[in-house]
Design goal:
The chain is an alpha+beta fold. The protein has 3 domains: 125 residues, 434 Repressor (Amino-terminal Domain), CATH 1.10.260; 129 residues, Arc Repressor Mutant, subunit A; 138 residues, Beta-Lactamase (2-Layer Sandwich). The chain contains 19 helices and 9 strands. The strands form 2 sheets. Strands 5-4-8-7-6-9 form a 6-stranded mixed β-sheet. Strand 2 and strand 3 form a beta hairpin. Helix 1 runs antiparallel to helix 6, helix 11 runs parallel beside helix 12 and helix 14 crosses helix 16. It is elongated. The two termini are 52 Å apart.
Length: 478
Amino acid sequence: MPPTALELSTLGHRIRHQRISHGFTLDELGERVGVAGSQLSLIENGKREPKLSLLQAIATATGVDVGDLLSSEPPNRRAALEIELERAQASSVFRQLGIAPVKVTKGMADDTIESILGLHRELQRREREAIATPEEARRANTELRLKMRDLDNYLPDIEKLAEKQLKAAGHVSGALTHRTVSIMAEKLGFELIYVNDLPHSARSVTDLEHGRIYLPPASIPGGHGLRSMALQAMAHRLLGHKRPTDYADFLQQRLEINYYAACCLMPETASVAFLQQAKKDRNLAVEDFRDAFGVTHEAAGMRLTNLATQHLGIRLHFLRVDGSGAITRVYENDDLPLPADVTGAVDGQIACRKFSARAAFSEQNRTTEHYQYTDTPAGTYWCSTQTGTTSEGEFSITVGVPFDDARWFRGRETQKRATSTCPDESCCRRPAADVAERWAGKAWPSARVHMQMFSPLPRGSFPGVDDNEVYAFLERHA
């Protein structure tokens, strides 16, 4: 494999360092090793790769080993500065500015190069932060969703890690208690502390110096979510996460900590045994899975996507849809036709009105699951939907499977059936011709503007988190 430009540049600097330290001019060293001084200059400037025989001759003439010349370390501070500047000016971030690179001369002071490098470092830092834009976030999220689809949403290494940690904490069966979660934290050297003044942009804050994990008050409604938050904070440590390098890395880390928390709350061994028995009884139900482990309906539905394909041989889909019909969380490996934008992103798209995920909002009884068969261009699917409400409005959780796999689920006998031809706009997006004609030119709605469209994510090390708030919080509690 040919050497890189950086390797040639470092080699050239090391040769120049040895030449100058021995008091040779280019021509004098060239005469000793049998090449013209101009050829030696090209090598020192990283423009030409020397033959091994020439390297050996240079090493002999300067009294060093060939290995010294081939070292990847710059020979001195000045060389390190020049190499770093060369690398910075070769980056795509700099080149796309269309600015001519600075040519380093012998008379240029080290402080001058340092100042220029400072600008390049800040440029790189801002570039890394700037990727946390809604568009880039959607692209990164789509790539991650497709990656997990290929894996059937199953991460075996994290499954094993969770079971190991649960065993070490003494958890045997049943719902995971807050006490066991605290023991798991203690074994990692952390104390769980519940506070009222967490930064508004953070769900939890971990103080690595003092071994503390700060969480919201334990008395908040739905306190079972605190177990998940604590487990997620621990997962960063267990999984060896470093500060995210870009938004895709941030999303990958978030997925992994969520996955770890789910594995702890619903361990693979116990969950698979429960699901396999339910399948044998032809009585699979998200609500039973939920109640068996003391988690939310959404958590149980998502956990089913981790295990159903791998252990039950069932392909499926999961949808979380808000009251306006927008998809806020999604997974599918059963080819359910889903709306997508030009980037392939599904999140934020409007689900078909005929889907159970939206039809369930009109049901009178919101406390039970609702079942439906839906005929689509990709085939017929059976779905189970549960609705709920938060401070942000109503939402629905749907888990569905292709028609043939409905036989394993409770609710398969439902007579409710719908037909969806989406993405054909005549299905549910385009108004009926007679209605459109009736109101043409007679309607003028006042649109609701979603202000989050104009709100940039806070700039910082972790996308969406205000560093200033976090550090001020840690200072208060240190």
